[in-house]
From TrEMBL:
GO molecular function: ATP binding; ATP hydrolysis activity
InterPro entries in the record: AAA+_ATPase (IPR003593), ABC_transporter-like_ATP-bd (IPR003439), P-loop_NTPase (IPR027417)
Domain of life: Eukaryota
Domain named ABC transporter: residues: 10-235
Name of this protein: ABC transporter domain-containing protein
CDD domains according to UniProt: ABC_ATPase
Segments crossing the lipid bilayer: none
Region (Disordered): 251-274
UniProt source species: Helicocarpus griseus UAMH5409
Pfam families: ABC_tran (PF00005)
Amino acid sequence: MTPSGPDTSIQVQGLNYKFPDGSAGLADVSLNLPKGSRTLLIGANGAGKTTLLRLLAGKRLSPHNTVLIGGVDPFLTGLEGVTYLGVEWVLNPIVRTDIDVPTLLSSVGGDAYPDRRDQLVSILDIDLNWHMHAVSDGERRRVQLAMGLLRPWNLLLLDEITVDLDLLSRSEFLGFLKRETESRECTVVYATHILDNLATWPTHLVHMHMGRVRDWGAMEKFYGKEDERTKGSENSRLGEVVLGWLRRDLAERGPRPGGPGEGKPIEGDHERAG
């Protein structure tokens, strides 16, 4: 790995966060992720993944000295090279209008980074003749990813943004991210529920449950000696680790109030979805 760029290590210490309505979002979250790491952020819906990613991106104000990127508060400093791709980004209405791919890529700096633009077009198998109102959701998502990643980033925060990609496109995309971290020593935190092609991708795991970090660390911590539970399983070792976490989370949470189908919709900040 060739060291390059600013420090994008992540330090979170005793982080607590409340939603605008006063309800708890995150509680006593602490973790440390080194520069150049590729972290999977794992947890059921509502675990707090989206909230944490937005705080890391500096999109929300965190208590003083609880969130630091390379030793700097991302909200107060407005760090360059931090890219967050989440719900707001993928819902941008411009990608559903009658506009062609070259125009979209040019609008986000494609002409300034022609080699990187062409690399992403190739990796994501994008047709430059596409018009965005006439393509599938999966094809539209490929263009969105190219737009979001076109300018070189130092810290990339991804919130479940590969759900519409087919298996090959997703595999090529993940390979691109891995090469980026290895060649430029940049950092990726990726919240996802889809574990295909990820068994050897992450360097670190973070497990969240009901606004708390239950466990985190380098992959070696979780990939112990293979036991009888993983032998003959249809899942990778990563899949077995994550499924075990989620089953335990569900058992500890218990049934939702009111029983199946009777839950009361939650109003207020939509960050709770992650």
